[in-house]
């Protein structure tokens, strides 16, 4: 046993040394093309948020000219603590030219590493910190899609009430709930939304429990701001309708999904990686919506034609820039006035949004 | 044919010595097979996994950062486990330590003194110890099951932290995003060699704690007491040792070290309180404690190995393109082989033909 062990060990050591030599030799030839690296907070198989980021990465690679032009590397399920900084630093050291940190919790880590690697470009999704000239931030106006969903929900719901599975009480999520309610109330001023906080971005079990709890409370439409397909599957089991999240989830609910807000990061990633190749990359803060093609609605399905028509109209109005979902008059949940007739909410207010509008049947966790 | 485990009359010195190496070898072989099936170059993958992270200085720093909390917590847990106290709640004690340690920088951010950092560390350790005292007192007084109480207190601690950073401790400058204000520079645990990487004093605390607890366990009466009570509470009572006092002692020590790990992590590697401060160090440390065979010095090695497996897993994802799931499966294989090979210390394997009925004197391995 022991001699066999030593022999195998010796073989392995030899192989290790050989592969080390290969590694060094291989590194030199791969410098001409661009390396784009992605850090995901969830698994790319979540069919939601991280999945869509990865789809965007793959689309970018295809758009720019395949593996010969762009090398892609990624890390999945990176925890939002001390590990994130290491993961980002590893990318910066492994020759990445541009690094996309795709979750809010990577904000400090991204900025810290960016300070140490001024030649690498960093792109942080959904954050607000740009401490170094090589850090950009980007986000999408998903609330535009939520408004359209609200319109559909109010037209479809017999109960006049929808269930909302929310992740964490951050502005991004509160904004989505408010936009959904405003869309619904544009059809039915008495429409109510019940909210369950799952306190997770991705946990099929918890999300399914939340969906069940909401159905038991009498809602007949479910929408979610968490990333798994579990709520869609529960909605299907219980015979009600639901909206997909982040990606087109139609195959998980062929008779259930009304539509879905599809995060289409492909155009943005293509544009930014190209900018790195051309040497034109500049720091910015981008918040694109339907107009820029960052927010796309999945096909309207499982609904009568008049509902579909109303949804398409709302979408067209937002897309053309004619209408902003956060246009007054809007009343806060506590009854006080937020926006006057015709007044449009400032982006800076939306990005720090921490209150509900009237019609949300929930107390915002503070 | 059937495979039987037969208890050895005494522990095998040979297998006690070679089992970690045997386990590592089996992991390499099984891993190579796994990677080959997935169409990845097995040699390159194994190299990236185990060797590459050790070839660069910055990566060694990261290894120290990752290993420090694992070792600190596991060292404390070894005292608990040796005394037959199943503290599963180190993750919660870690979290509370981070919270209590953060009180000074959050409430007195202007107080710039050399005393701030030591005070923070002490408060972190005290917080962790106080939190561990809950399951300890419940067990000592009411004989509750400490596995359940300590585990459930983890969720209480995590939700408490979550509430703090979304509510009263939220950074007003963070646009209602959930995080506490960043610590001032003098409340940050200094880096050891700032020119080459970000490893901080946490690893020093870990090694010092390991050596101190090793000394406590091997060379002092208290250590003897812990081991006697753990193996036979009745014998301990005859020796005049108090089971209740040992329960409290083990939990307080373990909680203090977990709390110290918590404030070190927050003040060192992260720099502020946020909703998630640990990727499960308190639970991973249970594995580290057993990998190190509940010996504090062994735990240093075990902590480094587990930390390496995280770093290597990341390196392999980037360099070779194996998935996160494969990496975790491989990590699981490593732990499996280590524990499986340790079985050979107490048992030997016997192959039995099914046709022949087993001899009566065979004792089956069930501990």
TrEMBL record, chain B:
Region forming the signal peptide: none
Transmembrane segments: 63-83, 90-108, 114-134, 146-165, 199-217, 238-261, 273-292, 299-323, 329-347
Keyword entries, A-Z: Cell membrane, Membrane, Transmembrane, Transmembrane helix
Membrane-related topology note: Multi-pass membrane protein
Domain of life: Bacteria
InterPro entries: ABC_transp_permease
Location of the protein in the cell: Cell membrane
Stretches assigned to coiled coil: none
Keyword Transmembrane helix belongs to the record: yes
Gene Ontology cellular component list: plasma membrane
Keyword Membrane applies: yes
Name the record gives this protein: ABC transporter permease
Organism field: Pseudaminobacter soli (ex Zhang et al. 2022)
